[in-house]
Amino acid sequence: MGQNIIILGIWLILIFVSLNSLFCETFAILPDNFNDYDAGKEWNPYLISNLANLRWLSETPEVWGTINGVQEKQYFLQTEDIDASETINWNNGEGFLPIGRRISPNYGVFHGQYDGAKHHITKLWIQPHDHDFIQSDLITSHYSLFAYLWEATLMNLGLEDLNYFADTSFLNRGSTISSLVGFAFRSTITHCYATGNITVQFSPFPIEDPILYNQVGGLAFILSSSSLLNSYSKVNITMVGNSFASLCGGLVMGLYASTIRNSFYYGQISSESEYQKSCLVITGNNKSIIENCFITSDSTINYDYALAYSLNNAQIIFSFWDKEATSMNYPVEIMTDSMLYSCYGYLTDEMKDMVSYPNWDFENVWNIDPLINNGYPFLRNLNYPPVIEYDPLIPSLPPILLGNYPNPFNPSTTIVFRLATESQVNINIFNIKGQKVKILLNEKMTSGIYHLIWNGKDDHEQDLGSGVYFYQLKTIDYSCVKRMIMLK
Asked: At 8, which helix (H) or strand (E)?
């Protein structure tokens, strides 16, 4: 009898723990502005304010940019920092399911804009299994925050203390893992960064097997006709096991007709395999450009090529690496119809002397200060505190006059504009003759997105007639005019 009571008690505890885990888990919640008729438009982006909203984005492919079978760009704005530590318990331990993970061969890529607005996502967990992804000869699985970008933009976003773990025995060969982006086509990634750890346990495959092997990119995997700008990775990559031809790029794995500019890697890469080629990028092809980039990591790697493994019709210019810190002696192993210009690798002390960089622009692009970037050259257009722990990169964005809706209108319309910083703002209405008929706004405004209604009246509160009108947004250093039509 007593033994039965103990067993019953254990079962009750297990049930309680399971239910507690279930009910404590964050479920998807619609953004606050989801029901707005213009939600997801440039002037009224979906607001991602918490982990529940982020899960909604992950689990709702309908908003990734394909509406009723037609590609239509969708816009998202992160409004708060998000703690994603709970994702370690999601999806039976697999963690976060990537956004734009290609649900079918012709559906499910991310075709939109995600603006992190200088916020970050912390402690994101991904431990992939390939059964959730479509598999074909042409589609591989990419495990990252965003799997596939198609004519998309990611901006002003940080991933901090991420933790991704992949056991390749659970993956199809050809699957990849990277912190922010898997595959980007005709897309732009700007002012983004990632810190944390990626660990890959490689299962041995036979050398003669021609199938692609699992590969790693610190920030992104493949950029095709895309740009990575003003971004960095401090993701520590650990590769366990000796797997033939499993590649790793500290910043990006491969470039095809793409550009990396003003970006850098300073994490650690450790590998047990002589085949895993570790450096800033692995391959650059088809007129790709790497410019103003560097690697100063403390890497414990066993490969001798710092900036790239292979270049084919590509170029690297104005970039550097620390020979002593990285143990990498040469910039590139294989070069075909490619060029290196003003790229330097020195011992640590030599790297911190301006005379080591002839032909570099130290008045407008680069600078050296012993208190910044540990004394290495740094880029003037990025923000560095006086220690190596960099602040999130902050862009300088102008105000934007986004438009008005409806247009044509009767009798009122809403004018939408966005401010990146606090500004004195004037919005005026002009008739077809260029005469000012209404001062709609004249005040100092903080940063944000604003919706301003014009009721079709002039400064004397008299109704104006049908016709073409112009509205102007003006700040101290920005001016933009757009047209609207009043129909009565």
From this structure: helix 2-24
Taken in order of first residue, the domains within the chain and their CATH numbers are 31-379 (2.160.20.110), 400-486 (2.60.40.4070)
Pure H helices in 283-344: 323-326
Q: Which H/E stretch holds residue 438?
A: strand 436-445
121 forms beta bridges with 82, 159
Q: Per residue in 256-296, pLDDT tens?
A: 999 999 888 887 777 766 555 667 787 888 889 999 988 87
Number of H helices, E strands in the chain: 4, 35
| Separation between Cα atoms, residue 324 and residue 44, nearest integer Å | 50
Instruction: Fill in the DSSP letter of residue 85.
Output: G
Q: Can you say how many angstroms the Cα of residue 75 is from the centroid of all Cα atoms in its chain?
A: 14
Query: What's the maximum distance between 2 C-alpha atoms anywhere in the chain?
Result: 96
Name, in order, each residue with C-beta under 8 angstroms of 448's C-beta and a sequence gap of 6 or more. 418, 419
- Percentages (nearest 5) of helix, strand, coil residues in the chain: 15, 45, 40
pTM of the model: 0.74
- Is the distance from CB of 202 to CB of 173 less than 8 angstroms? no
* DSSP per-residue codes, 145-163: SEEEEES-EEEEEEEEEEE
Helix (H, G, I), strand (E, B) or coil at 342: strand
